[in-house]
Amino acid sequence: MKFPILLLAAVTLSFAQWGGGGKSINDYKRVSVSGRDVYVYAPSGVAAKSPLLLSFHGMDQDPNYQQSNTHWEAVADTAGFVVAYPKGATGYSTWDISGDKDTKWITEIISQLAKDYDIDTKRVYMSGFSMGGMLSYHAMGKIADKIAAFAPCSGYLMGGPGQAMRPVPIFHTHGTKDDVVGYNNLENNLKSYRQQFNCPAQAEVEENHPNSENRATLYSWGPCDDGVYVKHLKLEGRMHSPSKADVSDIWNFVKMFSLDGVAGAIEVPTNRDAVFNGTFSDSLKLAGWKLQTHGGEGSLKHTEGMAEIKVTSVGTNAYDIQMIQNGMHYEKGQSYKLTFDAYGSEARSLEVNLEKDTDPWTSYLGEAKTFDLGTDKKNFEITFTMKESTDENGRISFNAGLAKGSVYIDNVVIAKIDESEVGGGETTSIAGKVLLQTGERTFGVYNMKGAFVCKLKATRMGDVQAKLDAMNIEKGLYVVKDGSFNRIFSVK
Fold first, then answer.
1. Which pTM does this prediction carry?
2. Per-10-residue mean pLDDT for the chain, 492 residues long?
3. Quick check: 386 and 401 in contact, CB under 8 A?
4. What are φ and ψ of residue 107, in 5° steps?
5. Domain 25-262 is classified in which CATH homologous superfamily?
6. What is the fold, at CATH topology level, of the domain defined by 290-421?
């Protein structure tokens, strides 16, 4: 099929030009595959057997344009996969959407990156804009045995739908004001594939689907044959333009599929009394946790069996970059103890909160607690009694937005305790005995190098923190000892 040259002028005039921020194509590695360029981004420390996502530009474009508009690396940093932007052929930088020149090249790209990055070849995903979207549909009939899921954007085969090799997962995004690849003909294209895959005739419709740029409606047909789904994200008023506003939706769809079939969905129970996946196991990785950024830049990834929050640009508040888990049940009148292991790539602070998951984000601690982290892993503890009304969807927040570098978190546990066990302030547990005995006792206070600082007398845990805070000593961490009792306190 020939791609009309008239389309070139339309494409050139209608692209939405915008910056996007973040990394540029210069942060990608240029790899030569059969004499043609592919720009590859692999997050630092990406695990072996991670997925690969291929993003294809439109006609008369290049990887620089596609990357600057989609910024797939921002999602890859969080989710842990490899991204590649292949470059079209010479001339008008087109793709072969009638033969097999480019589909054969795609298989060569997969083979090369499997050698270079040890990717999971059963989890290769393909997305493309405009003519890159057309190539995605063309590839369904040529190399669907190599691609686990497809996500075309603003492009479909102009000569009519093709025949897919197998039922394939499809996530198609398209603007209603597209003046290059018209929106009105999209339904006939999608309907053909839904019929090929024996999808349900009726779509599930989600109006006002979250999208940062356009009013969006998400249509879902499925499950179809082999458990696949066909989905369409309709973007009201958008013209012919790729956008980073859509890439998270695309990733959240394609990641569910592999060439072995539908990946088993991880169901995170709600209204829980316990933390889900607090050990960040190799099987669950970051399931149940997510990164939220309100300012600054950062990523969340699974590193050596821990969660790593990596801050690359600081915000103005600790919560500007936060790892959270919601779905927690906090019962009014019940006391709780949160424990976790943490350390930093360098000395820094970490703010922790147990709070309401919606505005006004009420802290059930009174206020978020701040801990001083070193470069050695230590165990930290917070105890509190729930004073507010019962919350069946509370959350835990680890807030790291005030300093660059990485925070590593592991073994997050929340447990119900007796109210008598509730201490005062932020603490870290060195020994299991955390309760003071009845009566006033004398404690030794030592700095983190083991040097004696002073003595203090207290009868309750809360008294220890209060007396430390009232002393004229430097801010930092101190070990309070008395016989078998050892505990670290933070002075601010």
1. 0.56
2. 31 30 85 96 86 95 93 88 92 88 98 96 96 97 98 95 96 95 94 96 89 89 92 94 90 92 68 85 80 88 90 91 94 94 95 93 92 93 94 95 95 90 51 42 72 76 78 80 63 76
3. no
4. -65, -35
5. Alpha/Beta hydrolase fold, catalytic domain (3.40.50.1820)
6. Jelly Rolls (2.60.120)
